[in-house]
Amino acid sequence: MATYLVTGASRGLGLEFVRQLVGRGENVIATCRGDRSMSELDGLYDTHENLQVLELEVADDKSIAALGRQLDGLTIDVLINNAGVYGPRGAAIGQLEGDNWSEVMRVNCIAPILLAQTLLPNLREGAGKKLVFITSKMGSIADNRGGGSYAYRSSKSALNAAVKSLAVDLANDDFVSVALHPGWVRTDMGGPNAMIDATTSVSGMLQVIDRAGQAESGGFYGYDGAVIPW
Ligand SMILES: NC(=O)c1ccc[n+]([C@@H]2O[C@H](COP(=O)([O-])OP(=O)(O)OC[C@H]3O[C@@H](n4cnc5c(N)ncnc54)[C@H](OP(=O)(O)O)[C@@H]3O)[C@@H](O)[C@H]2O)c1
Prior knowledge:
Low-confidence stretches: none
Radius of gyration: 17 Å
Largest sheet: 7 strands, parallel
CATH class: Alpha Beta
Strand content: 5-15%
Number of strands: 7
Bound molecules: ligand 1
CATH superfamily: NAD(P)-binding Rossmann-like Domain
């Protein structure tokens, strides 16, 4: 039984990660913002002793530091940085705004790396030493044929670049850092017309995470294990 920390666990893929991980008996620390309904997560919490729910606003440095203090001394095997935002939909060139864009960069790129940095002491003590970042194929520059989505695409491309650096920097410490694309998934972000459900996406990603070793570190993979071009 390993210990997983999952961010953005109030709904969507984060909630599904928590559901599947507690279901297979792992210890799970689920984090979510305090100002949102957590009803489904609360339901899981009520029925699973292996689930702990803590508050984390990923865009707030103080909140990340507070979580670090709360978890001081606790071993974590796998960090799943899942929380993310899409930003303004349909904002085309001519309508872009810096404030919105900064917020998306903050949540999708800067926060996951700062959280990983804060929790490194916990992860160093673990046997897993896995740093997982839920990014997106929309961050693939090679795959960008549709254009648009400036904030979202650039935030995920930037996250990919940072994950690569982390993999290089921590390789000698036996860490495994991977960027994962969940597929186009029916969540609030993916919308009702997306191709797969959260159960399929998360069960696939967990297989990729379970198998990931040094050889996979620094790579960008789909939920089906396929390598995605940067
Ligand atoms: N769905 C897709 O098709 C798809 C495709 C590619 C990549 N992804 C990526 O997969 C991840 C999960 O997406 P999803 O589809 O599950 O999205 P979602 O349904 O919109 O859920 C997003 C989650 O992130 C949390 N979150 C957002 N901003 C936060 C903040 N500042 N602090 C803490 N938590 C925050 C949300 O919490 P609140 O409830 O408090 O807002 C929620 O739990 C994201 O990184 C997304 O970019 C999704």
